[in-house]
Write a structure and sequence with these properties.
With 340 residues, the protein is mainly alpha-helical. The longest helix is centred in the last third of the chain and has 30 residues, at 281-310. It is 74% helix and 0% strand.
Length: 340
């Protein structure tokens, strides 16, 4: 983002993602699938959460939380709407042709970003971020405004405050890994796969609603209190999963469980800016994104191994509760620590 034009970076990411997805439709070798999956991940990183939130931070001085939540909640829309569509396509036209469709949709959804004329920073257009005003006519805005990339040279990722926050990002992103196992959880306690699919959709709807809500709350009461609220909602869902096992309560629990997505996406992004400063955001959040993906990638597999070993999801729910409590404590510690 510091060296490439924004549109070129997004275009490269789109081509990598759509191209590798299209190639998957021709692949019948598992190793080739893995390689293409890595290429897709690299492409998605070039136009995903990291650049989107950086641009929002540049353009929104006020109502930053609402702008961030509006942008990121649409990942939940994709999960809730497109997943069943792709499932139906696989059943009707086969998985190979479905990959072609996904690639085309990826290109179409990227077009507005590529074609819409805007800059990385409002200052490049002679503007100020939304809600930002000069204190007096004597100000020299262009010399005083810190641009993204002009980092505080004292900031480094090895300081204790950042290390704790890095670990928070790893462990809190383990909790959403349970969402992929909701259909299996439904089967394990005697319900149908249909209910399991509905639970997954309910969690995606909770994903959308919570991401929108946390943005409003963060602007009103602060991001830390908003994050704690969403973690509390997720903890209620985890307890309900263990205690109440009817169709309706499972769907309600799955919906409430989706609140954790708002913490992992919107919450971590805004807290990074608040704790470490906008000027350090690109460096800090790129590492936090790595931690988030690292934790999420391993969690799904680890949860599966624990279930295979114990034949129950009870221990997993307890572990998620422990992680949630530890996250609240750790964020409080980070909040009260000095950055430098």
């Amino acid at each position: 983002m510091k060296k490439l034009p924004l549109k070129l970076m997004v275009l490269i990411g789109t081509v990598l993602t759509a191209g590798s997805t299209f190639a998957m439709g021709f692949s019948h070798n598992i190793m080739l699938f893995y390689i293409l999956g890595v290429i897709r991940g690299i492409g998605a990183a070039l136009y995903g959460v990291m650049p989107v939130t950086t641009i929002i931070n540049n353009w929104f001085y006020k109502q930053n939380g609402l702008a961030t939540s509006l942008a990121l909640c649409f990942s939940g829309v994709a999960g809730a709407v497109l997943s069943p569509v792709f499932t139906s396509l696989i059943e009707s036209i086969g998985w190979e042709s479905t990959y072609f469709v996904v690639a085309i949709i990826t290109l179409i959804l990227a077009l507005p970003f590529v074609l819409f004329p805007f800059k990385n920073r409002p200052e490049e257009e002679g503007r100020l971020p939304y809600g930002k005003e000069y204190e007096s006519e004597a100000d020299l805005p262009m010399s005083e405004i810190k641009f993204e990339g002009e980092e505080d040279k004292k900031f480094n990722i090895m300081q204790p405050k950042f290390i704790i926050f890095f670990l928070v990002a790893i462990f809190i992103n383990a909790i959403p890994g349970m969402a992929s196992h909701l259909p299996t959880y439904a089967l394990s306690i005697g319900f149908t796969s249909t209910l399991g699919s509905l639970m997954l959709s309910a969690s995606m709807i909770g994903n959308i609603c919570s991401k929108f809500l946390i943005g409003i709350l963060s602007d009103a009461i602060g991001i830390v209190k908003s994050v704690f609220t969403m973690i509390a909602v997720n903890m209620i869902a985890l307890v309900m999963f263990m205690l109440f096992k009817t169709e309706y309560t499972l769907l309600i629990s799955a919906f409430l469980f989706g609140a954790i997505y708002s913490v992992c996406a919107v919450g971590l992004a805004i807290m990074t800016r608040v704790f470490f400063g906008t000027e350090n955001y690109s460096t800090a959040y790129s590492n936090i994104t790595f931690a988030s993906n690292f934790g999420g990638a391993f969690a799904v597999t680890i949860i599966g191994y624990i279930y295979d070993f114990t034949a129950s999801y009870a221990l997993i729910f307890v572990m998620c509760l422990v992680i949630a409590i530890a996250t609240i404590i750790s964020i409080n510690i980070v909040k009260n620590m000095k950055t430098l």
